[in-house]
Amino acid sequence: MSFLLNATDYLEVQQKFSMEELWRLFDGDRENMNLAHECVDRHRGKGRAITVKHDNGRLEYVDFDQLIRDSSQFAHFLQERNISKGDRVALVLEPGRIFYACLFGAIKRGAIAVPLFTLFGPDGLALRIKDCEPAIIVAHEVDAIRVQYPSIPVLKADEQFFNSLDKYPSDFKVATKSKDLCVYQYTSGTTRELPEAVKHSQRSVVTLMIAALFGTGLRPGDIYFCPSSPAWGHGLWHGTIAPLALGIQIVAYSGKFQAKMVLEALQELKVNNFAAAATVYRMLRRESSESNYNLSVSKCTFTGEPLDAKTFDWVTDYFGVSPSSIYGTTEVGVIMVDYPGMKGHLVKRGALGKPAPGNDVTILSESGEVALANEIGEIAVKRKGEWFRVKDFGYYDDEGYFFHSGRSDDVIISAGWTMSAVEIENILLTHVSVAEAAVIGVPDETRGQIPKGYVVIEEGFKGDAELLKQYMKERLSQHEYPRDITFVKDLPKTPAGKVNRKVLRDGALRD
User: The pTM is what?
Assistant: First the structure.
């Protein structure tokens, strides 16, 4: 067994980390591997695998042995219907026993599982179905899907369907190569700008362990809760596949998001390791003022976007541990982490962390040169000997911590000055009256662009644009403060919970 499972020292990890150590965590090798076997079958007899917290408060339990049987029977079901290696199996399902059976059953069969967000409208779903061309669709709600796709078999995922699987054997012999594809993952782009599916192989679980061990700090014995939907990378790879591959019990969330239900699950299931999008922590902060919860969290992480100082401090106080950052993209994976629970590394508020083991990360200037400390440029990671730009801007400080300055289209250039929308947002969020904030650049005849802020006001306060402008002037350079502030009831979000600045930019152009 690899020493990485018990590693607790930052310097030791930097010295001893290797890909060979990661491969030692698995049964498969560089030639033959099946992700479902690694996540499910090899953990026979270990007891509880998954607890699902439903939005009505109900808890649903799935053991490893039950999941082995369910996924094997679904694999046989697919085989009987000539769903072959490489065929896509689209899953329009909320987390629950059926979802996990179909996800891992498809992968066992050698097919490609395609989790799709259940709240997609017809257009959003249509673009992804057209792109992946599934051989079969499994869904909770099937009527509209069957009308929309009359040529594709659509299975209704209900108790009757599950009972029909009992006639199949409870084991399935896997026969996949490590390089075989097993999952298509779509990002949460708009329906008019569909991102290309990121295609994952069976061996993707190996490099995933870098994020699992050093990003979320997963260790044997954890009870781990990630409320993100498994339709997205965070919920699927970091919330489901990574912990199950280590035999760790997970908690998932199903249905409409309710902060109260998440806090209830943390308490009643004695979760010690919690991972969520930055937006979730802000929602929990609001809910926590209504009730007291007895929590057991000793490691917590965030991803999706930087965590503002107000929420960072609340998490540190409420959970009793500083939240650790995980940074990466769907295309390159996790490249920076905060090594939660490890001695020798301190979490720095506002930072993305430091490069994850095995990753060479830097900041590139506009000319392509490596930038100096504290100089804003584009974040880049080495891939195949070349710098790959991840389309985010940032900088690193004198201690080697990296900081985020926004997506490439979130950087604002005003009168020759380069400004970070993220930095301006974070200052706005320090004002007592501000619950949420987003900043974009809008056209200006004189300066080219100026920062425009959209603000959600905390309950009990009134929005005062001039007061906020003065507050910002006192804390930022004269060219940086938002000269235009609009108060809104809610900020537009992507299905993954990130602020959708494209919607704000499109709206600003129409105004």
Answer: 0.82
